[in-house]
Request: fold
Amino acid sequence: MGRRLARIVNTDLKAEPVESNAAGRSIFFRRNTLGAQVHAALRNDIIAGRLAPRAMLSEQEIAAGFRISRTPVREAMIKLAEEGLVEIFPQYGSFVAPIKLREVFDSQFAREALECAAVDKAIDRLDELQEQQLKAVIGRQRASLDLSQREAFFRADDDMHMLILSIAGHGTAWQFVETAKVQMDRVRHLAISIVRKQAAILNEHEAVVDRLLARDRSGAVDAMRTHLRAIFSSIEMLRCKKNDYFVEEDSALPTGDQRAAMPSRQSRKYVKSKTRAREVNQQGGQRDDV
Reply:
C-alpha cells in the first residue's frame, strides 16, 4: 500500500511547494488530495482482501504509517463508510466492513442482465479487429495464470468484460458496472484462494469468447450467464472457512446456491507497516500537521 501512495504523492498537484527533498525537488500536495490518496489506498486494500473483513482500523496507526496527520485519514474513513467498506462505531473504533451478501447478489443480478444483453448485441457488431482484441485479452489472462500475478489476472478479467460492452456499443456502461460490483469484487479476490479457481475463471472466459467468435448467440449468452453465476458457489465455499467475513442485511435473501447463514463477529487488527512509512517519506510524503 505504501508504494501506491508514494507514487501518488510524488505527482504534481499544482499546489504551493511545502518542502524540498534531498535532490532539491519541490514536493507538492494538498490536504484534500492527500485524503483522497489515503482513501484510494485503503479502498484498494479492502477490495483486494489485503485488509480482511472485520479487521480493526486505527486512525492513529494509519496516519503514522503514512507520516501524515489524522485529519486526511479521518476523511478517508468517512468516505469508505459511505461506500459500505468501513464501519465506524463511535467510542469503540473503525473496522473493515464485512462483505454484504445482499449487495453481492444485487450486483450479480445487474451484471447478468447487462452483460448477457451485451453479448447478445456484440454478436451482430463483432469485426475482425475486435476478434483479435478478444483473443489477445484471453492470451493475457492465460499468461497471468499464477497466484503471483493475481493483479494482472484480475485486470485481464475486467478488460474482457469491458471489451464486450464496448463491442456491443455500450462502453460507458462499464462505469456503472464498476460502481455496482465493489462487494462482488471483494468476493472475487477472496475466491482466488480456492483451489483451481483461476483456471476455472479462465475456462469460463474462453467459453464466452469461443462462442462469440463462432457467432453462437445462445451459446455465448449461456456461457456468460454461467460465468457470472459462478460467484454463488464461490461464496458457499468461502463461507465454510471464512463465514465471519460475510453478513446478511435482510431476510429476503436468495435461496439455493445463494443461501447464506448469519456470521459471527471477529476483529482483526490493522498492522502498521514501517516499510510503508519509509517509502512514503523517501518519495516525498510528509506530515500534514493540523
